Every structure is written in structure tokens, then in C-alpha cells.
Amino acid sequence: MALDISCFLLVALFSASCQAIGSSDQRCTEIYWIHEDTFQSQHRLETLVLTANPLIFMAETALTGPKALKHLFFIQTGISSIEFIPVHSQKALESLYLGSNHISSIRLPKDFPTEKLKVLDFQNNAIHHLSKEDVSSLQQATNLSLNLNGNDITGIEPGAFKSTVFQSLNFGGTQSLLVIFKGLQNSTIQSLWLGTFEDIDDDEDISSSMFEGLCEMSVERINLQKHHFFNITSNTFYCFSGLQELDLTATHLTELPSGIVGLSKLKKLVLSANKFENLCQISASNFPSLTHLYIKGNTKRLELGSGCLETLEHLRELDLSHDDIETSDCCNLQLRNLSHLQSLNLSYNEPLGLRTEAFKECPQLELLDLAFTRLHVKDAQSPFQNLHLLKVLNLSHCLLGSSNQHLLDGLPALRHLNLQGNRFPNGNIQKTNPLQALGSLEILILSFCDLSSIDHQAFINLKIMNHVDLSHNRLTSSSIEALSHLKGIYLNLASNRISIIPPSLLPVLSQQRTINLRQNPLDCTCSNIYFLEWYKENMQKLEDIEDTFCANPPLLRGVKVSDVMLSCSMAAVGIFFLIVFLLLFAVLLIFAVKRFLRWKYQHI
């Protein structure tokens, strides 16, 4: 068995010695050791987790047993030096996690195996200074991700990072950005994380001079979240000219000036959790190459304005969720000239009014998320009918009036539809309904819709569905017939009012891939014996069987359906004798009637 172990988790490794002082006083001393032979038999071990073990000693040969160790976790183990860990023989090592310890230097021992090292995590240690020798010990590792988050670097020796290449560097929580940018000169970094945290006092004024070191670096992505940008000018980002992605989440921005220099090549911009009042305040013309824009969770109500993003003709993805956006006529004026937009998120906003072809300016949309945004559809025709490429539509909890038969017209490519939390007239999906227009639909979510019944032909045009979620409604077993034309689907019927499933509906369940029936008031009496037998024979199809219980009879309430044993039929021998008895009784009865009639005739 030991040879097949690929991951080993140790919550505590210790030897304990107890000395009895008295009957009421016993003092114990626990010492944490890893001896020579601890992992001797774990030859195929790939991951070793020693998190939260206050280690005191590791033998020099403690890790010689595993030959393919790739991932080591020494988080919160109390160590103060990397030399404590004897990894010199682990040539396959890919990641080493050393967070929440007392390490003061990132310098690796000379025999440390860096050939395949990809992740080196020192977050939340006591590292405050980086020297040339520290960084040079990492140079044999290619495309390394180095995490120094939570260490507050106060000094970097000049030239320490000269000619170095990193996949990512994380200096999160460092108070002085000036120290970082000066120290990283002449380096090449894919992703640089310089964000700070709520509990760190950051009074440093962000200015263009602070970023001058960036002019001597090559960086693709920078994260500056939660820093304070007090006064952004057109030259603040002068040294960002090679940047592809910039994250300014929660940086207290109220507006961006026009004419910003240095961001013309930017592809992805995150401006979430800021203080814009109007979408035009981001001055979109500063970012002509932008393909991804995220303004999520704005702390003030955001007005969409008119044509604020029309210069972003290359935009592919736009997230304006959680922004308290409200407009009576959305969204053509607001999204003007975004003809290449493929993903739009307007979820968790205030009421939006939609007219026919409300997204005419975005004909390339493939994903549209309007979840938890109340929609007022003002015309009889569909507001989505020009979205011929739309694949995913999230209308959950939009309080839509689904009585509009044309609501979902014009969506020939739709694959995934989420209508969770919406209501149908009288809690019933009739044969004629908006869903019948969606012949390409594969995933349908109708949970929490207060449904009580579904017409047996309500989904007749939806022939290729493979996932149907009808959970958390008031459906009974009669609605299962609406799925009789479908095979191999995932069917979620959890939390409904299904009690007895008649034998005629069992073939419908049998032809599905996975079924969830938990939290239904299932009848476990002989009235439902055919279903109970089917249930035990099809356990491989059933999901959450540990949470699927009987509701009736009272004696079996709370018992897992899979554990129910019923005997609802007579034995074959009993049936044979019953038939014989009934036949004999019939013969005797006929004979007695004949004798009686003959006797009566003779005495007339």
C-alpha cells in the first residue's frame, strides 16, 4: 500500500514523554521530530504536507525515501531557515511553501535543487531585505513564481534583480513601492503583485516619480490594489508603456484624466471597487487597445452615460456587475460601437428597462449575465432576438414575466439558460411557453421557480438537453413525464414534493445519467414498492443518496431510502395454497347450492 501513496498529510509528528509528579499532577513534554526512517518506504510520494507541525528537528536523511517528491508544504512550522529542510536529494521538486514562519532570508543553500522549481512561497515571514546573494541563489530556477506577500520589504540591494526572469513576483503588503521599483530594475517579470491590505496604513502618495523604475523593467501584468491614488495626472503611468494588464481595484479613484500617456497598449484593465459616478469618468479613450474591462462593485451608484465606451472598439469582455446601475432604456446607447463584445455582465444591479433588440450594438455576444437585476421588458418582442451567437444567458432572479411567449426568440445558438428564481403563470409550465424556441439548449436551470406542474409536452422541442435542474420547487412525480423524450441527462429533482413515483414513470428515470431526489417526501410503504426496488437497483445513477430519506410511514421517517427493506408480496407457496383453497371453496359452494335447490324442489 505504501508504494501507491502520492500524497502524505501529517497533522502531528511527535514523540511524547510523560513524567508522573503525583496523582493529581502530570506534566507532559511533546517534542516534534522527523527521524531518518520516517518516509523511507514512501518511494512514490509526490506531495508532503507538514503544515502546523511545530518542527524542532529533521534528520539529514529524513527525505531520502521519496524519489519523486514535487510539492512540499512547511507552512506554520516554526522554522527560521531554509537550511532546516534537507531537500538536497529532491531533484524533482517543483514547489516549496514556507508561509507563516520566522524566515529572514530567501537565500537558498548551495545544494538546493532548483532545476525544476516553479513556486517558492515565503509569505508572512520576517524578510525585510533582499541582497544580490539572496536573489542569485534563485537564478537556476526558470520562470519561478516567488511569493513575498506580507513581508514588508524595506530594502533591495541595487542590481539584485539585474537580468533576472520571473514568472511572477508578489510583494503584497509592502508599504514602499519606490523601494520595489528601484530594486527590480533590469528584470523581466510576467506578473508583478504589489497590492496592499485594509489593515495596512498606506499614506504614500502615488506619483509618476514612484514608477520611474518601471521604465527599466519588462513587466506584462501589475496589481496595485488598495493603494491610494490621490492625484493622477496624464504622466502618472508614463513608464507603463509595455504593460498588458493593470489592476487598480479599490484604489480610491473618482476619475481618470484624459490624455494619459503609457497605457495605449493595455489589454486588460480592472477598476473595480472604486468611486466613479459616471462611466465616462474612466476616459476610455486612454485605452484604445483594451479587450477586457472590469468595473465591478463600484462604491457609488454608477451612471452608464451615453457612448462612454465607444472608443473601445476591440473590447471583448465587460463586467459592470454590483454597480447599482439603473436605467429605463438599456442598452444600445450605453454600449454604442462595442460590436466585438463577447461577454457582458450586468448582474446585481438596479432595475433595467429592455426594449426590442436591446443589445443590437453587441451582435457578437456569447455570454450575457443579468442575474439579480430586475428586468422590465417593455415590448412584446424579445430584447435578445438579434443575439444569434449567444451561448450562455443568465436571467436568474430577474423577476421576469415569463408569460411573454416571445421572450427568448432569436437565440438559435443558446446552450445554457439560467431562469432560477423566476415565476411562471400559476406555477405551471404549459405546452406553449418561451422555452420551446430554444432548440439548441443543453443546460436548463429552473430551480426556485415555485413550479407546481409541468405539461408533458412543455420541453418537447428541447431535444438535446443534457442537464436539467428543477430543484427547490413544488413538483410532484407527474411532471417527470415532461422529460420522457430525453436520455442521458443530469436531472436534479431535489427539494420538491415527490412522494410516490408510479411504475409507468420509472423508465423515464432509468434512461437518465444522474438523478438527485434528496429532500423529497418519499413514500417508503408498499404503495411505492416498485420505485423502492428500482432505487436499489439503480444506485449508481443516484446523487446524494446519503441525504435521501423516507418521509412516510412515520416509523421510517428519517431513514435513508437505500436502507429500507420491505416485504410487500406473498410467497409463491402461499399463493399456490390460497388458489387451491379458493378453488375447493368454490366447488363446495356449488355442490351445496345444488343440494339445497334439489331438496327444496322435492319438498314443494
Architecture blueprint of SSEs:
Layout: E1 7-9, E2 15-22, E3 25-31, E4 33-34, E5 47-49, E6 57-58, E7 71-73, E8 95-97, E9 119-121, E10 129-130, H1 132-136, E11 144-147, E12 155-156, E13 165-170, H2 177-183, E14 188-193, E15 218-223, E16 245-247, E17 268-270, E18 292-294, E19 317-319, E20 327-330, E21 343-345, E22 352-354, E23 367-369, E24 375-377, E25 392-394, E26 416-418, E27 428-429, E28 443-445, E29 453-454, E30 467-469, E31 490-492, H3 506-510, E32 514-516, E33 522-523, H4 529-537, E34 542-543, E35 550-552, H5 572-602
Parallel strand pairs: 1-5, 4-6, 5-7, 7-8, 8-9, 9-11, 10-12, 11-13, 13-14, 14-15, 15-16, 16-17, 17-18, 18-19, 19-21, 20-22, 21-23, 22-24, 23-25, 25-26, 26-28, 27-29, 28-30, 30-31, 31-32, 32-34, 33-35
Antiparallel strand pairs: 2-3
Family: Belongs to the Toll-like receptor family.
Membrane topology: Single-pass type I membrane protein
Subcellular location: Cell membrane
Description:
The chain crosses the membrane at residues 570-593. Belongs to the Toll-like receptor family. Keywords: Cell membrane, Glycoprotein, Immunity, Inflammatory response, Innate immunity, Leucine-rich repeat, Membrane, Receptor, Repeat, Signal, Transmembrane, Transmembrane helix. It is found in: Cell membrane. The chain has 604 residues and is mainly beta. Helix content is 9%, strand content 19%. It has five helices and 35 strands. The strands form seven sheets. It has a 22-stranded parallel sheet, with no helix packed on it.
